[in-house]
Amino acid sequence: MSDSQFSSLSSSSYDGSASPSPAAPPPDVVGNGSSGDANRSRQLITSQVSRHWRDVFWMGVFMLHLVLVGVALAVLGFNRFREKDRLKIDRFTNMFLENQPGLTEDFWPLYAVAGTVGTVLAWAWLLLLGSSANSMMKFSVHILTTYLAVISVLCFWQKQFFWGVAFAVGAVLQFLYVISVIDRLPFTMLVLQRGVKMVWSLPEVVGVSCAFMLVMLSWLVLWSFGVAGVVALSIGDGGRWWLLVVSWQVFCVSLFWTGAVLCNIIHVIVSGMVFLVLINGGRQAASMPPKPVMRSLRYAVTTSFGSICYGSLFTAAIRTLRWKIRGVRSKIGKNECLLCCVDFLFHLVETLVRFFNKYAYVQIAVYGKNFNRSARDAWELFQSTGVEALIAYDCSGAVILMGTLVGGLVAGTCAGIWTRIKHPDRVMMVGSTSLLMGMILVGLATVVVESAVTSIYICYAEDPVLIQRWDAEFFNKMSEMLHQRLQHRSARATQVLTSRFDSQMQETAAV
Question: Would you say residue 311 lies in a domain?
């Protein structure tokens, strides 16, 4: 998108003499010839009523996984509940493990600590959302490196060298990442402030987050019951690594997927609400559909549920990898060999982002598309309008993830300390799984802000006037930053082409 195109896109915002003319909505929502916010809203509601079920296969896979994992957790937990080998299944594990006389109830309360701490932190985040969320996010950015370093030292002190190295590497990577994006944080905090403003104007979405937190806690009761039974099964050196593999590769992956699905259901609900509020001009507008939260919830758990299950498997991992590669890439300098390797990874991840990105959930919420089409359409929308340059500069998702990691680390530390007192040889197994529990619970609280931010970007790309009408000052700052990023990209492209041309001329002259 050139500077002249950008100017024509947002000229109505700066020309006070002319009334703004909204950009044409996507054809999926509005038919040809329709105009105005009320027409767009009515057409949007009509399009939602005729939705079809999407990605049904992945919905079936997720539900089957829940049933199988749930049965396995119940069996493993009950097998050692109040009595060793109650179901007589230890004979199948004797060849692999050094079975011990541990009981499920010896370790189940340890996971209750992690669940309680994670819930308290999540509730505290929601309660402070309107008054101190910005300070909390700044605190998360700066405290995460220190916290990782302290845990690394504690692991080395306890002679857990593997985990000590792992946390030390994490602290170094986190420090390097913050240094690489330090100049982006002011704009990031501005975007997060507006996301918080939007969420605070919609208290019902906070209620949705709390409700899904209770759903997650219900699953965690069963999950921790089964995992406690696994931890009680063996502590011998011969079985310890096998237990870690089982815990992380099966139950932890299952917990991560389940937590991601619940977070993304909230994501879809909040995105649908934010889009309706912006397109109708306010929460109290007469054109707002009745019970919009329940409408979004119904679609999220029915026709769009398969798409949510599918995207939840891959989106978070790819997004995190993309942030890290961007941070490393910006600090490499002139090391051509290393830059070539990182560029290869960067382009590979960028290709994956086209098919798995968090902005797909807004398209799912609004238009009811399947996940792959939603992700592709969102990315093409950003690239065609130039907004992708602004998104690449923004680090709001990474900052929110840092807050989630801090919450998980606190929950894992609390559970680990009590485990150290009760069962010192199980600290890493209980602490690591408790960390994941805390992350998921805090993530259910923080996702409401991330959803608002992603919806704001989608609305800005589709029709900038929607953002201008909602917050003119914020719109002007976004437009100014977008203009700067497009100029920066243009200058970099010119520099690269000039450098290549000069190199070719020198090679020709040498020949």
Answer: no
